[in-house]
Design a protein that fits this description.
Elements lengths: L2 E5 L4 H13 L5 E5 L3 H9 L10 E4 L2 E4 H10 L16 H19 L10 H4 L5
Length: 130
Amino acid sequence: MSGIILFDGDCNFCDCAVQFIIKNDKKGYFKFASLQSEIGICLLNKYSAPHDIDSIFLLENNKYHYKSSAVLRICKNLKGWYKTGYILIIIPKPLRDFIYNIVAKNRYRWFGKRETCMIPSPEVRKRFLD
């Protein structure tokens, strides 16, 4: 069993988040694909997930989660104290998503856009879906 994370492949912040997850997911639970990729679009369709939501998506157990719910569920599967971030799930979703939306809306301005894709090592490359 594993989870699939769909992320904005053009976003520096999202790229850093993916690198952080890879570093703290020693068991290799998560696989990754860009939202803009062919596989990303196919997966959104498969899960009947909306395409018009500007968010990270977590696909697992035949369900999708997005925005703050995806982030917190990702935390649950990371090593160390990052797991404890999942406790924030008790905060009402509208409040969590309000904060998420502020970061999402400003991520290009604050962190920039990527002009080129990262080139992962062969070991890390296995975790990206083609």
